[in-house]
Write a structure and sequence with these properties.
- The complex is a heterodimer of chains A (328) and B (533).
- Chain A has 14 helices and no strands.
- Chain A is an all-alpha fold and 328 residues long.
- The radius of gyration of chain A is 24 Å and the shape is globular.
- Chain B has 16 helices and 21 strands.
- The radius of gyration of chain B is 26 Å and the shape is globular.
- Chain B is 32% helix and 18% strand.
- The chains are: A mainly alpha (328), B alpha+beta (533).
- At the A-B interface, α2, α3, α5, α7 and α11 of A face β10, α7 and α13 of B.
Amino acid sequence: MKFLSFMLSRLSKAIIVVLGVVVINFFLIRMAPGDPAALLAGEAGSSDPAYVAQLRQDFGLDQPLYVQLATYMKGVIRLDLGYSYRERVPVLTLILDRLPATLLLMGCAFIFSVVLGVLCGIVASYSRYRGKRTWLDSVLMTAALLIYATPQFWLSLIAVVFFSLYLGWLPPFGMETVAAGLSGWGHVRDVAWHLVLPAISLGCFFMAVYARLTRACMLEVLGMDFIKNARAKGVAAGEIIRHHALRNALLPVVTFAGIQLGQLAGGAVLTETVFGWPGIGRLMFDALMQRDYQLLLGVFLMTSAMVVIFNLLTDVIYRFIDPRIQAE
Amino acid sequence: MFFQPVLRSSGALKAVAWSVSIAAALCLLGSAKVQAQTRGGSLRAIVQPEPPLLMLGLNQQIPTQYVAGKIYESLLTWSPDLKPQPGLAKSWSVSADGKLYTFNLQSGVKWHDGKAFSADDVVFSVDKFLREVHPRARVIINQFVSSIKAVGPNKVEIRLKEPFAPFLKAFVSDNMPMVPKHIYDGTDYKTNPANQTPIGTGPFKFKEWKKGSYIILTRNPDYWQAGKPYLDEIVFNVIPDAASRAVAFERGDVQVLRSGDVDNVDIRRLKALPGTEYTTRGWEMFSQQSYIQMNQRKPPFNNIKVRQAVMAAINRKFVVDNIFFGMGKIATGPISSTTPFYDGNVTPYSFDLKKARELIKESGVDLSKTPIKILSYPYGATWDRLAEYTRQSLEQVGFKVEIDSADAGTWSKRIADFDFDLSFSFTSQYGDPALGVARLYLARNIVKGSAFVNNQGYQNAAVDALWDKAAATSAVAERQKLYSAIQKTLVDEVANGYLFELENPTLYSSKVHNLVSTAIGLNDTFADVYIDK
């Protein structure tokens, strides 16, 4: 019952936050100079004033701003996110079309970064804690620092040049081999093969963060009295790490994972650009460049909703990891 | 009687027989080889940025033209020397007064859904569809076309209100694509579901579009040119990053790189790859030219001598050689050397800083009191370098300069609202000064809120009259005289700062043939393109 009221309270607040974000975004986007009508006319090699005026009328941009907002909000409540000015299809269709690719890429990058990052953090902290093989800690943390400091687009490009061009091992762009006629497992393997480079390139940065975060938290916990007590009682080192240190060190990691998960639906513009991955990030970037207000608002609405949902999930996970939070 | 002596000689007869046999065998072998080379295969190319739509009547961005130019056709096509060639019209004629155009259409043409193409489609396309929605064609149609009617299933007559010499040049696929009446008539053109699955008469049919990934066009087996196209399909990959596009070409994942697909700095390296062909042909219809726009409504650029000083202060050879990596040719005036009626006999502006300083002194303008901002052209790092170079050059002759950066939307808005001092742009000339050049100088095109017209605010009533007269004159020699006079005045008055004619490189695999064969190059139908097996 307590949990239910907690969830209801958080959900109602979440809805208010999302609607607030929509309104702020609506005005922010329109503060940028230029509008889609002028851009579309310009790209066609002409800017006949009558044509531009006609486009503005078609898009409803000739209406006062408050009328445009009211129309948009009415649509949002009915889950109608409007029509893309440029692509002339419903915004929801465009977003849903790109969402699976984004979720796949971000999901794989997330798993890769969390698993490898936390593992590196544990190994590094353990070797430091035991005072044995401290060089391993130094190597892992230096590598993590290097990866953290390397610009992601540079890392992606080098990966393409090395693994695709020189070694020829992995495909350099796209999500699948075009017109290969693959289906079933063949198709799954093909997509997985295309996923390797972008997922690793994207996950590397987060992996470094997880590694450093986990190490720091672990070392802090490992220095505490209850750990000394456990060691004095003769509890095995592995047992201490698994059951005592890691569980206590995980809270900041979970917080960061919640933030990363919130970005899932937002895609990754740089990675999607370098690898030609057909995700939401690229869609958002193109929409911004072309002042496709409706599409941009739709993407922002979805990403802000995701951030709110994942924050909520993080709070719920806290309660399971640390029973003290539940008790509070 | 003449052949008898030869035929009577058995030796000669045998020799002839052998020769004929060998020649026939060679011909057969040859034709078998040609057949093997010409039919089948998939051409892999890149389209960037991804077009928003493939309905050529509704969207005319360059990537849209590239892909949809294989789906839609116009009545004519154009040879590299800008001579009209049969397209959906097999022949055409123009009346002596230059007001009546008659087109005889190809017979047996079908839309991709199997319905027959007829004169009614042409009438609908020009008189209704394009007149309403096409940003460029509607200007020509509304200004010049008096009536259009079908005078038979395969014959169309278009009557003009007044002669318009370059009218035929309007019939290019991106400007006057034919659209199916049976699908669009009576519907809302912009929201018609068929826009997502375009139907044209071209050699390739729309097959699949995975947004953000690829577009596939497949061979139209019912194409009106028997035996064509040769390719089975064309795959356009969407690869947003220039470096990744270069890698895709190097690996052989794609066989064609269009101008702009990779940075100029990569061209020399890629062009040297084995099995790679390079051409700058196929842009004759567009003949793109870059120029400096100087806002002539306010100081210092309302003074002709200051504008002339800008021309003398900029080393255009340096710009072409070092910033654009040699991909250009210095412009002499508003009309490109590959566009008809070009006249290079105008005042030359050579790089001369001393002369620039003298001109500024003569102008009487105090540059310290009129600082300027360069609005950078938002289409890549090369244009940013040009802005930086221009700042350095102008500062050397006394200008106080800052650089303003903007994205495409902001740039377009500021240019349209005349909110700039100096900026850059480039324009396509569409095969005739009346179609692609005049719009940048006519005083009636000074319209706030519209970019890509006379945004610099140049006004000269005498030149306006010359533009109008030249557009309505049919005699080539007379037009040349008028355009020569226009070019001389525009160059003298520096109506814009003419920088250079863009050279647009195309790189492609040497296994691909006939890729560039018309004045619109890669935007053409690819009906003749084939790949070695």
